[in-house]
Specification:
Largest sheet: 7 strands, parallel
Number of domains: 2
CATH topology of the largest domain: Rossmann fold
Strand order of the largest sheet: 3-2-1-4-5-6-7
Strand content: 5-15%
Bound molecules: NADP nicotinamide-adenine-dinucleotide phosphate
Order of helices and strands: HEHEHEHEHHEHEHHEH
CATH superfamily of the largest domain: NAD(P)-binding Rossmann-like Domain
Radius of gyration: 26 Å
Length: 329
């Protein structure tokens, strides 16, 4: 009896030792996560160069959505002035006065109808532009939705669906409808203008949840797309444009009762965003960037136990599982 218990314990200890060696070997491999769920440090990326003096002189064709006002109008203006061929879209082109004035003054900009809620209309434009390479598909258009209708206890679920349909679904539809145009271009970039509000780790206040969740979902959609099309060398860029002085930002700040002295102008934002798009390459695909060129965290890991306490270590749990006290603390 005593003999068989000793044999069993010995066998378990040998198993434990083998397991320990295997875990040690695996944890020594580069890029693997190891005990306690910590991972090796991520590969350091070169910082994005934002110096306007070093601005790239690359040109191509860009399609900008929501180009009749705000950041979109400035993106369309700056690309036009940089000599790009610009397809600028608006929901109601006949009312897009500033954009039409820009088109009158510049032969390299054309105005097209596009509403993100109108999928047939998106397909029609893609068909109209069949065979036209689009180097940068710049998904800028989005809606905030009435902030008061997004307050918990007073949630307007129809609005929630609409915000999601425009910001998330509409932008995914754009990527799908214009994918072939991007694929035949030289630069092959699909850009989503997203928001710092989409970062779970950066969440500071509980306002405008419909908008936030629509952008977080958009980011996930774009991340999966990035992985899906990397083999085709199509680059998916996620860029937050900063806190910009536009009517969207004004509506959000008014509701929050905040007087902002930190806003940047649409011009500052557009310049920064274009510089980032110029430098965004296939190695960066799917990276969530700020207009300053920083990588925005999706979520910040928080340690839920003290890693110095062996009681809680993965080693200890393995030991417990094997019925052994590998570490006596
Ligand atoms: N402003 C900021 O501080 C800030 C911060 C983070 C992220 N962003 C993002 O930056 C982008 C531009 O924002 P913005 O501040 O310039 O906003 P904005 O001034 O409110 O302009 C929004 C644009 O999107 C268009 N749009 C709205 N619904 C649409 C639909 N269903 N189909 C097509 N176009 C539609 C609008 O067209 P209409 O004129 O016809 O309504 C307008 O051209 C958005 O993606 C926004 O989420 C902005």
């Amino acid at each position: 009896m005593l003999h068989s218990i000793l044999v069993q314990l010995l066998a378990r200890r040998q198993l434990a030792l083998l397991t320990l060696l295997a875990v040690l070997a695996i944890s020594a491999l580069p890029g693997n996560s190891y005990a306690g769920g910590h991972t090796n440090a991520p590969i350091k990326k070169e910082p994005i160069q934002l110096d306007p003096a070093l601005r790239s002189d690359v040109t191509g064709t860009v399609l900008v959505t929501g180009a009749n006002r705000g950041i979109g109008l400035q993106l369309a203006t700056n690309y036009t002035e940089r000599g790009w061929t610009v397809i600028a879209t608006a929901r109601t082109p006949n009312k897009a006065d500033d954009l039409n004035a820009l088109a009158d003054a510049h032969s390299n900009l054309t105005v097209e109808y596009l509403d993100l809620l109108d999928h047939e209309g998106i397909d029609d434009l893609a068909k109209k532009l069949q065979g036209v390479p689009i180097d940068v598909l710049l998904n800028n258009a989005a809606m905030l939705g009435d902030p008061a209708a997004q307050d918990f206890g007073n949630l307007d679920y129809e609005l929630m669906e609409q915000v999601f349909a425009v910001n998330t679904v509409g932008t995914m539809k754009m990527a799908e409808a214009f994918f072939d145009h991007v694929l035949i271009s030289d630069q092959k970039k699909i850009v989503a203008i997203t928001s710092l509000q989409a970062s779970i780790g950066e969440l500071r206040e509980p306002l405008v949840p419909f908008y936030k969740l629509s952008k977080t979902a958009l980011n996930m959609g774009m991340m999966t797309l990035a992985k899906r099309v990397k083999g085709k060398k199509v680059i998916i860029a996620l860029i937050s444009p900063g806190a910009v002085d536009t009517s969207m930002m004004k509506a959000a700040l008014d509701h929050a009762g905040v007087k902002a002295n930190f806003l940047i102008t649409p011009q500052e934002s557009a310049e920064a965003v274009i510089n980032i798009i110029d430098q965004y390459d296939l190695k960066m695909t799917g990276t969530f960037m700020s207009h300053r060129g920083d990588v925005i965290p999706w979520y910040q890991l928080k340690r839920i136990y003290n890693e110095t306490t062996l009681e809680n270590s993965a080693w200890h749990r393995v030991g417990n599982w094997l019925g052994l006290r590998l570490f006596d603390v």
